[in-house]
Design a protein that fits this description.
Elements: H1 3-22, H2 24-27, H3 31-36, H4 43-55, H5 59-70, H6 76-79, H7 81-99, H8 104-111, H9 114-148, H10 154-157, H11 160-173, H12 187-243, H13 246-256, H14 267-271, H15 283-291, H16 304-310, H17 315-347, H18 356-374, H19 379-420, H20 426-448, H21 454-466, H22 469-477, H23 483-503, H24 509-531, H25 536-546, H26 553-556, H27 561-597, H28 608-631
Helix pairs in contact: 1-12, 1-19, 4-12, 4-16, 4-17, 4-19, 5-17, 5-18, 7-16, 7-17, 7-27, 8-9, 9-12, 9-19, 9-20, 9-21, 11-12, 12-17, 12-19, 13-17, 15-24, 17-18, 17-27, 19-20, 21-23, 21-24, 23-24, 27-28
Length: about 650
């Protein structure tokens, strides 16, 4: 790194710290100001904040690995979540806002009643805020260490008197954190350097996120995503230019891997968007892709996505946030990464002798190698700042979101109100939230040391969340859902996931997900049948407060007879908007992506040009329809 590169990084750090200090007074008032920015976020800012959080330092490495091992078609396991995001936006975002809660765990005691609801709230707060959150954060930190190692050389920059104690400390702990693995002769030097890098990055992130709350997080996210896109565009341009252009890149893929790439993958399998040419596009995999948008732990937006929706200033802004997020995340980001992932595969071909378990990690590391070997001065600083910004935007969101469970649910609801019988002050809760940030970070760091690849952690996280998805959506749209159904789904998932991990290999991940989702949903429906719906008074209060769409007829009739009849129609309009907007997203993604990387058209469509033209036409034609369905005249009593 040269002086210019360092100055770019320092400028970003200074801005982030200033953002935290600027909002500290507002954030210190109460939990709503700290965790939800006083419910004042405009939709575009909330959407970009979601996109910045999911951009993440780990995701470009993950994408690079998937493209090399499974081809472009393998990325559908990421892209299909566009449907999840739009389900949240068009069907549920307004309901999240009107619920008036701070966390999704708190929602359980608004939707349900009695001791079962209280138990569910506590379990969800711990499960989501600690287990799911810290595993996710752990793999992000794992990626950050990979990115920092070639660029932040503290063993060169620091005097021996300062650096050698760090080496001694990490060697005593005995947990290597290096690209070279435990057999690298410099493993402890590299590990010490990585630990120092992570410590400094996380200190800065912790400072502004813990000080200024969600306002600071979203302010920095908007700048961070701009830096990320600028750096990624520059990196992609340099890689493609190094090869000789987009056409030359496609040709080199076909030449280099004519006899088979990693795991025997063919050029068409590397480049294919559609299942006809894809690698391992089995019926089990296709069935999973058809359901993955629903069978996941964030199916209704649960987590920081719901947090951003609840922080919006109106229902319309909450919908806008989901649409901005989806197009930024799935279309714009992917179209920058696709030629980059293919280009790195051409410039740094994989070692054919690598075992399948090591190949994914090797390909993830090629992203960092490309940065180190190809980027000139200035662009290096911009890209490194972009990756550090991606790390910061993900870490700050996970810390803020996780701390909301610890503070609002575990500390306030159970420790103070239920056990100690007192009401904590708003300012004391904010200080507990700030302390929770640090504890969550420490737990995530411990998890990070146990990971071997980003994809490994991501797949495990998907599995543990698969059983919750259907139930979380049904609680919004069907009045008969009860707290025991959610508890049954969680217990089934927790019991079955370890068994599936032990009995079915990673190559059968799709089957594992389908089995777990089916079993957990069946257990939930059995609980609905055995226990019956919640008490009518609580359901009426929930409906009056939230005005959910869907099948609430017997409950809605106690509030508004017209609303009871309109419930299914409201759900139909929302699902129509979700479906057509998803169609636009996927048509733009596949159409432009096929043109960029020279992907083959489906087996039933002989002309690539006609295929691309049809995709773009259909995507554009759907736009006014979904916009009218989703953002048309307000007929649902939602705030505008």
């Amino acid at each position: 790194m040269q002086t210019v590169d360092v100055l770019i990084v320092v400028a970003f750090v200074a801005y982030a710290v200033m953002a935290g200090l600027r909002h500290r007074r507002q954030a210190s008032k109460n939990l709503e100001e700290y965790f939800l920015a006083g419910r004042t976020l405009p939709g575009w800012k909330a959407g970009l904040s979601m996109a910045a959080t999911q951009f993440a330092a780990d995701t470009p490495l993950l994408v690079t690995g998937i493209v090399a091992v499974s081809g472009i078609f393998g990325l559908w396991q990421l892209w299909i979540f566009a449907v999840t995001f739009l389900l949240m936006g068009f069907v549920l975002a307004g309901a999240w806002r009107r619920a008036g809660v701070v966390t999704d765990a708190e929602l359980t005691e608004v939707r349900y009643a009695g001791s079962a609801a209280a138990v569910l709230r506590g379990v969800k707060a711990f499960y989501l805020g600690t287990i799911i959150n810290c595993v996710s954060l752990g793999w992000v930190l794992f990626a950050a260490a990979k990115i920092a190692e070639p660029f932040l050389l503290w063993n060169v920059w620091l005097p021996p008197g300062l650096f050698e104690p760090a080496v001694t400390a990490v060697e005593w702990v005995g947990l290597p954190l290096s690209l070279g693995g435990p057999d690298d002769p410099q493993v402890w030097i590299r590990t010490a350097s990585n630990v120092i890098s992570l410590g400094l990055i996380l200190t800065v992130t912790l400072l502004y996120s813990a000080t200024g709350g969600l306002r600071s997080v979203t302010d920095t996210d908007v700048v961070q995503i701009g830096i990320m896109f600028a750096g990624t565009l520059a990196f992609t341009t340099i890689v493609v230019t190094e090869i000789g252009g987009l056409a030359a890149m496609t040709e080199q893929v076909r030449t280099t891997f004519a006899t088979g790439g990693p795991g025997g993958i063919t050029p068409n399998e590397i480049l294919a968007f559609t299942p006809g040419h894809a690698k391992d596009a089995t019926w089990t995999m296709l069935s999973l892709l058809g359901l993955l948008w629903l069978i996941n732990s964030v199916s209704d937006g649960t987590g920081y996505l719901a947090q951003r929706s609840m922080a919006c200033r109106s229902d319309r802004d909450a919908k806008t946030a989901a649409v901005v997020f989806t197009f930024t995340q799935v279309v714009v980001r992917s179209l920058l990464w696709l030629p980059l992932g293919i280009g790195l595969l051409v410039l740094f071909p994989p070692d054919p002798g690598l075992a399948p378990g090591l190949l994914q990690g090797d390909r993830e590391a090629s992203f960092v190698r490309g940065m180190a070997e190809l980027l000139p001065v200035g662009v290096m600083g911009l890209m490194l700042t972009g990756m550090l910004a991606a790390l910061a935007s993900t870490v700050d969101s996970h810390l803020n979101w996780g701390a909301s469970y610890w503070t609002n649910d575990l500390y306030k609801r159970f420790l103070c109100q239920a056990w100690l019988g007192r009401e904590p002050s708003g300012r004391s809760l904010v200080w507990v939230a700030r302390g929770s940030n640090l504890v969550i970070l420490l737990v995530a760091l411990v998890i990070m040391t146990q990971l071997t690849s980003i994809n490994q952690a991501w797949q495990i996280n998907l599995l543990f969340g698969a059983g919750l998805g259907v139930v979380q959506v049904l609680r919004w749209v069907w009045w008969r859902m009860n707290a025991w159904a959610e508890i049954a789904a969680m217990l089934t998932s927790a019991a079955l996931a370890p068994l599936l991990l032990a009995s079915l290999g990673d190559d059968q991940q799709a089957l594992r997900l389908l089995i777990l989702a089916t079993a957990s949903t069946a257990a939930a429906l059995a609980a609905v049948w055995l226990k019956g719906p919640e008490k009518q008074a609580g359901l009426v209060a929930f409906y009056r407060r939230v005005r959910p769409v869907g099948f609430w007829g017997p409950i809605a009739s106690h509030v508004d007879g017209a609303a009871a009849a309109a419930g299914p129609a409201r759900l139909g309009r929302a699902l129509g908007a979700m479906t057509l907007c998803s169609l636009t997203v996927f048509c733009f993604l596949v159409g432009v992506g096929t043109w960029l990387v020279g992907s083959p058209s489906p087996t039933w469509m002989p002309s690539r040009a006609i295929w691309i033209g049809c995709l773009l036409f259909v995507g554009l034609a759907a736009c006014p329809v979904w916009y009218r369905l989703g953002f048309g005249p307000d007929r649902d009593g939602e705030s505008s």
